[in-house]
Amino acid sequence: MKRSSTATSRADPRARAWLDPAALGLHDALSNDAFLDALFDAAVAAAREGQRADVGRLVAMRPELREEIESALELAERVLVRRAPRIPQIRGYVIEREIGRGSMGTVYLAQQQSLGGRRVALKVLTGSAALSRRARERFLAEAAALAKVRHRNVVSVYDVVEETDACAYAMEWVEGCTLSQIMDRLRRSQLASPMEAVAHWLAAGTAPSAALPGSWVAFVCKTGIEIGRALGEVHRAGLVHRDVKPSNILLRSDGTALLSDFGLVRDRESSMHTQSGAFVGTASYAAPEQLRGESDSIDARSDVYSLAALLYEAAGGGLPYGNGSPMEILKRMESSDAPQLRARAPAVPRDLETVIAKAMEFQKSERMASADELADDLERILRLEPVRAKVASPAMRLVKWARRRRSVVSAMAAGLAIAAIGAVLGGSWWAARLDAPRQVRKLRTEAQLELLSPELGERAYAVLTARAATYAPVLTKDAAERALTLYGEALSWNSSDRTLRMEQAAVMCALALTDRWDSESFHYSERQASETELELERRLREELAAPSTAAYFARRIGIPEREAPARSREDVRLRGLTACLAADFPACFEAWSQLDLSTDADPLVDGALGELCLASGEPAKAYPRLLSAFRGFPEAGFLGVDLADAACRVGDTERARGFLAQARVLPRQDRYRSADRVEIDLAAAAARSRAEVEEVYARYEEFISGLHVPTAYFHYASFAQKQGDWMRSLGVLLRVAQRKGLEPLHDRVLDSVENWWLQLSPMERAEFLETSLSGNLPQFVKLTRSLLAFGPSTSPPNLLAQIRRDVRRHFHRRLWGMPGLRSLILLDEAAADRLRGDPRRARLAAALWLTPWPSLGDAWVMCR
Amino acid sequence: MDGFTHNPMLSDDPVEWERLIEAVGPPSMLVVLRSRMGRALAARTTPEDLWQETLLHAWHDRARFEWRGLRSFRSWLIQIAENRVRDLLDRDEAAKRGGGRAPKSLSAAVMETPRERSLWPLAGTTTPSRVVQIHEEAQAMFEALESLDDEVREVVRLRLFEELEMEEVASRLELGLSAAKHRFRKGAAEYQRRLEVRLKSLSERGHRIVRP
Asked: Between B1, B15, B27, which is nearest A49 by CB?
């Protein structure tokens, strides 16, 4: 194809490549398929750089492929996983520049062509997001929500545009800046008289408005009034904004405030709902119910809260509860009220402090009922009239504080009451009775520690990790009977304590199931339910009002399937406890995952969950649980050791050392000497030099030679792995599986080896193979021989085949000549042939494989 | 040509930085990072966390990066992520790089001065909705890619996501150049089709915002 050189020299450099098909390999000799392949590849590369194809020229080369060429070029545009920023093309608008990013899409300053170039803010959703129907629906819902509200203090929506690869809506263009920008500048400049500066900033080069209030506080009130009125209108339209914050408040040059960015708005009529429990909004301004993710209880008063938090920050110079994650901020809110505004900014009027405090009440029922009420009180402040909001009296503040800290207050009140009454009444009997709560607590603690015995951890490990005897009850008979005695004594002090009765019932259920357990067959007997069991089931259902626990127990004792939903938190807790003591850990997890354990401390549940998480290899989850449990049971040495273990595994080694030192001197230690093992783990975490590493190896070796503790083997193997000693690691894993009495672990170990390989990323596998091939091959071969000889139920050939495929994929051709690699291939064949039952061929392959390493005699042994 | 007429690394403007990060395609980067993480590492950290660490590191070292266009910037980010993966996998190596100190997280390392902390723009993800959007797109991309046949998946991954030259893709996979290009065209079409199905399926499952 000829082109004029003049045309070339004048051509846009970006398009030059498309004028030279030969440079792209698009020559006449190509078949149609090859032409399209080359074209597509080039089109992708060009599209990445923002270049567009000259479709006409390409079609001219192959007119018969017009459709295919157009499809290929379109696909090249759509398939890009990233693209250079381009100004989007939106029908009817000329985009001038980008002005910001909203919660969905990008906002541009544009001119609306149909209205003589009127300036608008055009929010655009493009890219792969525009391909997602859900993203488009959300985006258009945002536009629809904005369009529902007509108010001078809400940015107006003019138009919505939907195209194949983009959608957009045009809004009122507000010349000015955001409240957030003004506040940032004020913070940095620390002006004594800020309004002059604010006026200049808002004017942005034009004459400052004379309509602005004289003081910053008055400006804040004025902004609060305008946004309050805007929110009132939003709420009347059936919407909740959910993201009121300074960066969503636009300010015109005359200081008028407008509410914008309805990206998180919730329309009560909409079918799109936020998942309950999920936080939506900006944490620093969010109301408590919003932080808790209670999507159904977020309403207008939540927006009132956010507006008040905004006013607090604007007037006081800082956020009421600081920055942080939703949970961190919620915890601060639950601990105390926000610092008094006038303590931060004495110039703030008392009335403004009162109004903001009222609007920021923790309980939403105590806030203003509407944003308009808040605006009304702000107007009263500006008019120097008394406000309606009232400040809480000291007594009321105490009540409100107590509502946030129920458990602390009830304990304090009980203690105070006991002390007071005891002092008045005197007498040893009375004193003893008044001491009942302390006695009950002591007995309950003792009983709970029986349930949380070290056996729980070991049994959980066996069930969850080693897949040993499944579901054998956790409690020994002795431990159960001791626990029952202690619960009985506690109940004699306080017979109406429902929690005590429930925990006692859980132990009785565990005992009943222990009676059914057949340690020979490793199953529960399927005999008919006894009178005792039926009575227990009735008691759970009727007396203790724990229907879901009763249903669970009924299923375990063979009564026909009954499903009953839990009616209370206590029922769920009890069901989890019953399941835990029965070693039915999946059911235990299922029940306790429904509990909100972040509000009320529950050392028993925390301790049990911590043990289970630790046993199932989730130390990060175990750590906070065990910490809470150890605080509840400070005399439980085994808990301290497990806490140290969890801390060590998550890398908090300093604290782990502290916990271990603390635990070693406590009673109730674990008979499997896990404290010693944790000590070695800590040494492993600190090992840096080769000498230190070798010393840790020696300590692990010594430990496991004395005790059959699978955990120690796995930690040892993991440590070796981290040092890059793969051979040692795999060798240790095989040893644990070969020890007598640990047969149930065989599958686990081989799974580990298999999973170890499979979980390596291609880069890691390549590194491992390189290391092996560069010097470790004899040991690697020896190890794989062990794998071949071990575990008939697993599939070593698959593992080796996988290794072989990976070698193919990740090594260059030149490595094929290496003897080690050839040996791997032969090893694969030997294994396959052996299992296919052709010993002669297997021997031959193995002989070839083993040369020049150990003797043919080894091959013979292997193949027998 | 790549949308940047000037060197964006010289700017402290968070908006500019965010535009740059958007341009490299955060969802596709999550897919790339995921492929770098083995299962053991994936159990300890997520691609999103690794991405954040990568961006922190890139922000910290941006002045040292010689801008040669978006593609080289993207490659640089991948390299940073790979180094971080190695650090996480190999403590001893990291201790040596850190002069014998225990490796600390990148976030702790780079946010050392008030100025750095004040300038940090939460690169690329300023709102909960955007976080969710990126995550969902990345997940859809990953699933679409993984669902491809073995013989085309790697070609698509290496060419489209890793942005290797086709010659290198062919060499790595021991294919002829024309065979590689053919697989790429076929694989990309199938990948796009499956991706669109997944994106459509997400929308049909209803609006769902997860805890960021």
From this structure: B1
Do residues A284 and A330 share a domain? yes
In a domain, A714, yes or no: no
Instruction: Decide if A133 and B206 are in contact by the 8 Å CB cutoff.
Output: no
Inside any domain, residue A663: no
Q: Where are the domains of chain B?
A: 8-119, 128-204
| Cβ-defined contact of A764 to B206 (cutoff 8 Å) | no
Looking at the structure, tell me whether residues A255 and A400 fall in a common domain.
Answer: yes
Hey, of A37, A247, A726, which one would you mutate to test binding to chain B, going by the most B CBs within 10 A of its CB?
Answer: A37
A18 vs B36, residue with greater confidence: B36
Token pair belonging to A708: 């059959």
What does the alpha-carbon distance between residue A308 and residue A245 come to, in Å, rounded to a whole number? 10
> What is the least distance, in Å, from the CA of A394 to any CA of chain B?
37
* Residue in chain A lying closest to B155 (CA): A41
Mean pLDDT calculated for residue range B111-122: 43
A840 has a chain B CB within 8 A of its CB: no
Q: Which residue has the tokens 């390989």?
A: A757
pTM above 0.90, yes or no: no
Which residues are paired to A240 by β-bridges? Answer: A266
Comparing CB atoms, the residue among A86, A278, A763 nearest residue B209 is A278
The domain spanning residue A202 has which CATH number?
1.10.510.10
Domain limits for position A340: 177-404
Residue A87: C-alpha distances to residues A95, A217, B15 (Å): 7, 41, 15
CA A608 to chain CA centroid, nearest Å: 22
C-alpha torsion sign, points A795, A799, A800, A801: positive
Task: For residue range A678-687, list pLDDT tens digits in order.
Answer: 999 999 999 9
CB proximity under 8 Å: B 13-52 to A? 15, 18-19, 22-25, 27-29, 31, 35-42
Report the range of poorest mean pLDDT among A4-8, A153-157, B51-55. Answer: A4-8
Mutating which of B28, B30, B127, B136 best tests the A interface, going by the most A Cβ atoms within 10 A? B127
- Residues B22, A762: C-beta atoms closer than 8 Å: no
Residue A37 is nearest to which of B160, B173, B178, comparing CB atoms? B178
**Residue closest to B49 by CA, chosen among B117, B107, B94:** B107
Residue A8: pLDDT band (50, 70, 90) is very low
Q: For domain B128-204, give its CATH number from 1.10.600.10, 1.10.10.10, 1.10.443.10, 1.20.1050.10.
A: 1.10.10.10
> How confident is the model over A563-574, as pLDDT tens digits?
677 778 888 899
CA atoms within 13 A on the CB side of A860: 3
How far are the Cα atoms of A244, A358, A359, A361, A858 from residue A391, in angstroms, in the given order?
A: 24, 7, 11, 11, 90
The beta strands (E) that lie in A522-651 are given as 523-524
CB within 8 Å of chain B, chain A residues 131-170: 131-138
**Pairwise CA distance, residues A612 & A589, whole Å:** 9
CB-based contact B137 A103, cutoff 8 Å: no
What percent helix, strand, coil does chain A show, rounded to 5?
65, 5, 30
One domain, residues A208 and A308: yes
Distance CA(A506)–CA(A440), nearest Å, equals: 18
Q: What crossing angle do the helices spanning A569-581 and A603-615 adopt, rounded to 10°?
A: 50
- Contact between B185 and A36 using a beta-carbon 8 Å cutoff: yes
Taking the CA of residue B206 and the nearest CA in chain A, the distance in Å comes to: 7
- pLDDT of amino acid A799: 56
User: In chain B, positions 84-123, which contact chain A (CB-CB < 8 Å)?
Assistant: 85, 89-92, 95, 100
Count of the separate structural domains present in chain A: 6
Do A207 and A281 have their domain in common? yes
Q: Which helix (H) or strand (E) holds A786?
A: helix A777-789
- Min Cα separation A654/chain B (Å): 13
